[in-house]
Amino acid sequence: MKCDAIVLGGGPAGSTCARFLRLAGWSVVVVDRATFPRDKVCAGWLTPGIFPLLDLNPAEYRAAGLTLQEIQSFRTGLITREHTTRDVPMLETHYPTVVSYAIRRCEFDHFLLQRAGVRVLTETNPNAAMERCTFLTSRPPDCTSTMSANYWLPSAV
Ligand SMILES: Cc1cc2nc3c(=O)[nH]c(=O)nc-3n(C[C@H](O)[C@H](O)[C@H](O)COP(=O)(O)OP(=O)(O)OC[C@H]3O[C@@H](n4cnc5c(N)ncnc54)[C@H](O)[C@@H]3O)c2cc1C
After folding, report:
1. 40 CB within 6 A, ligand 1
2. Residue-wise DSSP of 127-138
3. Is the CB of 151 under 6 A from ligand 1?
4. How far is it, in rounded angstroms, from Cα 135 to Cα 146?
5. What is the CA(40)–ligand 1 centre distance, in A?
6. Are 121 and 152 in contact (CB under 8 A)?
7. 155 within 8 A of 128, measured Cβ to Cβ
8. Distance between CA 115 and CA 15 in Å, rounded?
9. For the whole model, what pTM was predicted?
10. How far is CA 8 from the centre of its chain?
11. How many Å lie between the centroid of ligand 1 and the Cα of residue 142?
């Protein structure tokens, strides 16, 4: 199989990298040991600043029918051995604008990976194992080097 770049891992970092490479005209393959949508341990909070970095419009994301809760207030409590939130007053903090968004990572990561618009190889072979692979990089033209790394690889590559 021939491509300009193989991105290992299809999480937000990998899918965003793959998307920008594709938009720059590269042919890209993402390899992930998990099949998406996949779960990812996460609190699911995104600060507004991440949207321009990902080139993602919150309205576009919500229009896809995915969870995107706007957070403008926090209620902070105190739980100690002596006190619980029942007898200690809660501290409420309100902001004039949205300070955070809540998403579901299984949805978010899947959305970003699909949006990347590249070929995705995931676990297809139960015998797939960690292998040592060597790539010849030849792009941009003045860069020709050999890279070698251990990573999980589906048999399709
Ligand atoms: C408990 C917890 C709570 C968090 N809460 C937040 C939060 O609220 N907000 C926030 O912004 N961040 C949060 N984070 C951090 C956030 O989850 C990470 O910063 C983010 O997932 C990193 O994205 P990534 O694409 O680099 O990696 P990941 O999302 O971890 O994706 C890596 C991908 O690579 C694949 N992979 C790994 N190894 C291999 C291999 N050898 N071969 C093939 N594929 C492989 C995995 O299957 C995975 O899909 C939290 C993290 C934890 C642990």
Report:
1. yes
2. T--EEEEEEEE-
3. yes
4. 6
5. 7
6. no
7. yes
8. 8
9. 0.83
10. 12
11. 33
**148: which residues sit within 8 A by CB, 6+ positions away?**
132, 133, 134, 135
Domain ranges of the chain: 5-40+104-152
> Is the bond preceding 96 in cis, omega lying within 30 degrees of 0?
no
**Is the CB of residue 116 below 6 angstroms from any atom belonging to ligand 1?**
no
Residue 149 confidence (pLDDT): 52
pLDDT tens-digit readout, 2-60:
678 889 899 999 999 999 999 999 999 898 888 999 999 999 999 999 999 999 999 99
5-40+104-152: CATH homologous superfamily? FAD/NAD(P)-binding domain (3.50.50.60)
pLDDT confidence bin for 127, thresholds 50/70/90: very low
For position 44, what pLDDT does the model report? 96
